[in-house]
Design goal:
By secondary structure, this protein is α+β, with helices and mostly antiparallel strands. It has helices at 2-8, 16-24, 39-52, 62-69; strands at residues 12-14, 28-34, 56-59, 77-81. Helix 1 (2-8) packs parallel to helix 4 (62-69) and helix 2 (16-24) runs parallel beside helix 3. InterPro entries: Ribosomal_eL30-like_sf, Ribosomal_eL8/eL30/eS12/Gad45, Ribosomal_eL8/Nhp2.
Length: 83
C-alpha cells in the first residue's frame, strides 16, 4: 500500500501546490491522493500526473495520508520525491 511508501520515502512534498511543483520539475516519483479530498483540489494534479506518466496511488482518507506524512492534519495529496 502507498501508505508504507510515504512513510519510507526520504523526501515527500505535502499539499497540492508543492506536489504539483515537484511533478512539473520532474522530481516526483509517485503521487498519492486521498480519496476523500475535494476533486477541485486534485483534478489538475491527477491530469498532470497522467500526462507526465507519473504513477498515482490512492489512500482512503486525508487523515490517513496526513498521518503517513507525519503531520497532525489531513493531507489531500503528497508526492514522493526523488532528490
Amino acid at each position: 500500500m502507498s501508505y508504507d511508501k510515504v512513510k519510507q520515502a526520504k523526501s515527500i512534498s505535502i499539499g497540492t501546490k508543492k506536489a504539483t511543483k515537484m511533478v512539473e520539475q520532474g522530481k516526483a516519483v509517485e503521487v498519492i491522493v486521498a480519496k476523500d479530498a475535494d476533486p477541485r483540489l486534485t483534478i489538475k494534479l491527477v491530469a498532470l500526473c497522467k500526462r507526465m506518466e507519473i504513477p498515482i496511488a490512492y489512500v482512503d482518507s486525508m487523515k490517513l495520508l496526513g498521518k503517513a506524512c507525519g503531520i497532525d492534519v489531513g493531507a489531500a495529496v503528497a508526492a514522493v520525491v526523488n532528490e
